[in-house]
Amino acid sequence: MGNRDTLIAIANKVGLAEAGAFLQSMEGLREVRHEQQAYQQAGIRSVPAYILNEKYLIQGAQPPALSWRLLKRYLARINIFTSKSRQCLRACLNFQRGAQNS
Questions:
Q1: Which residue ranges make up each domain of the chain?
Q2: What does the angle CA 41 – CA 48 – CA 5 come to, to the nearest 5 degrees?
């Protein structure tokens, strides 16, 4: 979402007035611009984007089955693929699948 006024309104509506104030400040603007530049330099051109271990980039909306295969492959390469991370990823992908079907 790129509309700052919309983000501020949402932040205020859900009780995050501090976030709304931050987004309205020059400090907030500088931080957001800095992060945007860093993401662009990392090669990110679409969302969602996942960077694993500052090495592997998965970007763009993927079908859940493909997302699962890619995440399994890269997590195995960086040796952090545990039963707990597997369970978490399955829950996330099931949530995503449910959101697509509604």
A1: 4-41, 49-101
A2: 85
As a whole number, mean pLDDT of residues 45-53 equals 82
CA dist., res. 44 & res. 60, Å (int): 9
Report the predicted TM-score, pTM, of the whole model to 2 decimal places. 0.46
> C-alpha dihedral over 67, 40, 14, 88, to 10 degrees?
20
Instruction: Report the C-alpha gap between 96 and 71 in whole angstroms.
Output: 14
Extract the tokens encoding 4: 């700052």
Q: What is the mean pLDDT of residues 41-69?
A: 83
48 vs 88, higher pLDDT: 48
